[in-house]
Amino acid sequence: MTRPRTLRRGARRIAMVAALSMALMLFLVGVARGHEGHESAGPEVEVVEISGLLDEIVVRLMADTLRNVDPTDTLAVVFQVDSAGAVVTDDRIVELADLIHASPVPVSFWVGPSGSRAIGRVAQLAAVAHDIGIAPGARIGDLGDPVLPLDRYAVPFRPSEAGDLIVASVGYHEAVGRSLARPSPVLLEHLVGLTGFQVVDEGSSVEPLTRTRFGQLGPVDQFFHSVASPAIAYLLFLVGMGLLVFELYTAGVGVAGVVGATSLLLGGYGLAVLPARGWAVAVLVFAMVGYAVDVQTGVPRAWTAIGTVALVVGSLFLFDGTPLSWLSLVAGVL
User: Fold this and answer.
1) What distance in Å separates the CA atoms of residue 123 and residue 171, rounded to the nearest whole number?
2) What is the DSSP letter of 149?
3) Do the Cβ atoms of 247 and 253 come closer than 8 Å?
4) What is the tens place of the pLDDT at every residue in 88-113?
């Protein structure tokens, strides 16, 4: 009995060792193949998504990306853009243009996906880049006054004598037809058009060999970037003031007071970042003072009408060059 049991134990050990050896061999083969595949892919393309107004947070992301680019492992930098303008100083725009111009790797702008825009100073930055692509339904232009020094940078896109790109934007077909940008319906097609981007054509589809890594704002930066959008900053400011007005006539400090104070601080931050008119902000505060008078009496009277008029006027003229959408205005007034 002892000898057969010993033989069975020995057989199981041999089988276990063989299985472990086979697994180790497959793992090493997989690592080797993965290493070979990575080497064959070569440098990667870095794609950085830029959405919303170009504020200090987004400018810092773009600048850090361009400063830290390593030509040994980066084939190109692609900025995926959907932006209606910038709220930073002209010096910051010039600084970005210099970084784009001096980049050791090609810098490309893709205005996409459909519905995206590259307007104002963002479009002027795109004109400095080595390559521009645009998706159907996207628009580019409405450059405004030139920000970049004319002794170092040519007039963006060489607009016609009528200066149509200075005051208006163009869509996909016109941008492609005038050679302002190349057709790039989707991001992959834009990447395929980059010099050195490797793909495998499998007939019905294209498989990229060049790897792509994506850069974006961190959670905290993304939060404050969202707060600094016109609609959110406007609504937060109004909600904060409204809640504090009601909290003035309640006993103690409740949830409404805490939420109101937080909303007011965040809305104030957004208005400080955006081109808000100081007198319009004062008119909004005056409107809340008018409402506070009638809230105390408990009956809407003349001060409610005065506050409503002040609220509408302050809302309509709140931002300089960055108009609020009608939906945001209606929501704020209601």
Assistant:
1) 13
2) -
3) yes
4) 999 999 999 999 999 999 999 999 99
